Amino acid sequence: MMPPENETSITRNPASVLVASRIQNACVRIDHPPNSSSNVSPCTDDRMPEQRQSTPARFSVLRESLRPITLKFQDVSYTVKLQSTKGDCCSSLEPKPGKTVLNGVSGIVRPGELLAMLGPSGSGKTTLLTALAGRLPGKVSGVITYNGQSFSSSVKRKTGFVSQDDVLYPHLTVLETLTYAALLRLPNKLTRDEKIEQAELVIAELGLNRCQNNVIGGPLFRGVSGGERKRVSIGQEMLVNPSLLLLDEPTSGLDSTTAQRIVATLRGLARGGRTVITTIHQPSSRLYRMFDKVVVLSEGCPIYSGCADGVMEYFGSIGYVPGFNFVNPADFLLDLANGVTPDTKQDEQQDFHSRGDHHEAQTSIKQLLVSSYKKNMYPALKDEISSCHGGAPVRSATGALTSRSSENQWTTSWWMQFKVLLGRGLKERKHESYSGLRIFQVMTVSILSGLLWWHSDTSHIQDQVGLLFFFSIFWGFFPLFNAIFAFPQERPMLIKERSSGMYRLSSYYFARMAGDLPMELVLPTIFTTITYWMGGLKPSVVTFLLTLSIILSNVLVSQGLGLALGAILMDVKQATTLASVTMLVFLLAGGYYIQHIPNFIAWLKYISFSHYCYKLLVGVQYSATEVYECGSGAKCRVLDFPAISYLGIDDIGWNVAALAVMLVGYRLLAYVALRMGQPR
Ligand SMILES: Nc1ncnc2c1ncn2[C@@H]1O[C@H](COP(=O)(O)OP(=O)(O)OP(=O)(O)O)[C@@H](O)[C@H]1O
């Protein structure tokens, strides 16, 4: 059948309007919308047989009462500012063009329903999903409500979001990943053992028992399969028993059986009283039949929003019917969203070369479909959005304030979050922190420098001072460059977990600091012990301990600077470049290489922690009355040695204070930068 050819065919068509209206109403498949007490049992039939067998009859958080959410979105539009393509310095002054990614998308999803967003690549599915999850940066126009209310932190905690890329720690096993998620996300009223039990139940529910002790894996080493990884991501969200679950292409890259299993799980979750929304690329007809509703996007504009099994009727009513060899409704919808109809398809096969004409024809078909949606489908949808009051009422005369304020609290205490994050961080990073390569690096340098400075004494004071300067610089560079990677590497995980309201930023931050400490302090301690005694520095335990504590303070300050640079720039390349320039400046201005720095630039040494460290190291090594052999039998005061006289070994208190200020200041800066760059 031919598509409509003139404007009259897309004007408000009473027959199409009737169909569209029926499609909207027909979507309400659940006769008795789930309520907080009886909403979870219907899912059993939809689950895979293996899941039905494996679900034990223990208490499951997945079977606890829910707070159903009806999600409505009306006229959602979103525009992004495009980066200028010109590389010259003045391009930033030009106004940047905007790109409309979403244009007037509407829909309604009730508890118990599974909605699929379909559309060609780049049509705006992910953007719409992110907007519905309340995670889209910038201004989204239109109205999005959750049980009639705007997005709030209580909705956030009841929302599960599974992104297209699985953000998981590669060195943790499936069981560990879900256990840590359970410990962090489940409320304090459950004991630790009960939380672990919930993680095991989710593993059983998702059919992950066989691989529960396998590591997740990453780009450099193999772990669980793509489908298993995806199910782990879904499991992390299932643990919070979300009322609203959003998933971005959960089946992409999976074989059809695994994809079928995942969509069956989603449908089961929906039937348990949740509102489930997923984007999907190319569903098979088997998968398509599992959806309750679909939203079809074409270049950011909706061409259909309603019941999944009403698409044929709707498009038939406006003049588009599939060809005789039609099998899959999803293929038909995607063709339409691309502006391809069965007729144009046939033409394309006949005449492969007339691409320009086809492009115009496709554009006009897309425009026709969008106009048809606006005229025939949108009014019915709009009426339904404004008339429907589905879902649990969030406001009751007395209960509203209490339940809201209690839901706004974190599910677990600060201390609990700290402990779990510390344990998880130590487990995930033990390969990195205790890497043989790192230990080898430090041991080699320490032994080599011990040999180079072998038993130097005060008659070679220049060498001794050089060793002290080397201490300050080596333990300035090494921790700085290690720390730079911390936050940029963890950023995706931090964004994901903080967006779900999993923990406070402060508990994460302190757990990270504490987790890094042991190895950050053990290596310099071993290094100093070896080099100090091999290098022939003052053979006094007190002086050694003072030297060690100065070096450890230097390590902490330098690590703080690295963390701050990483957190501010969130880009390893930029941060390492800046760090190398900074350390070069500190090296030169430290007071060892150049002893007559011009006054106008001499202030640089005051911002260098290596300078303070070096001064303190010299200060504890030599006393004011000490002498050294400065010629054949002649004795000179240490204080008169040019390098030391220029440096000065007085005002130890000021140097300690400067290091202390930097120790706190850099870490505070790192925290503030992280807070500013993260969702609250
Ligand atoms: N921040 C942004 N800056 C520039 N362009 C953007 C931005 N966000 C989205 N877009 C553009 O908007 C369009 C829709 O993107 P989106 O990721 O939502 O599409 P999609 O339908 O999910 O695609 P796919 O199926 O390939 O994942 C794309 O053309 C994308 O390039």
From TrEMBL:
Annotated localization: Membrane
Single annotated GO MF: ATP hydrolysis activity
SMART domains: AAA (SM00382)
Region annotated Disordered, chain positions: 30-55
PROSITE patterns for the chain: ABC_TRANSPORTER_1, ABC_TRANSPORTER_2
GO CC annotation, single: plasma membrane
UniProtKB keywords: ATP-binding, Membrane, Nucleotide-binding, Transmembrane, Transmembrane helix, Transport
Its membrane topology: Multi-pass membrane protein
InterPro entries associated with the record: AAA+_ATPase, ABC2_TM, ABC_transporter-like_ATP-bd, ABC_transporter-like_CS, ABCG_dom, ABCG_transporters, P-loop_NTPase
Transmembrane region(s): 437-455, 467-488, 509-535, 541-568, 575-594, 652-674
Pfam families with a match to the protein in the record: ABC2_membrane, ABC2_membrane_7, ABC_tran
Boundaries of every ABC transporter domain copy: 71-324
Similarity annotation: Belongs to the ABC transporter superfamily. ABCG family. Eye pigment precursor importer (TC 3.A.1.204) subfamily.
UniProt cross-references to PANTHER family, sorted A to Z: ABC TRANSPORTER G FAMILY MEMBER 21 (PTHR48041:SF24), ABC TRANSPORTER G FAMILY MEMBER 28 (PTHR48041)
Protein name in the entry: ABC transporter domain-containing protein
Species of the source: Rhododendron simsii
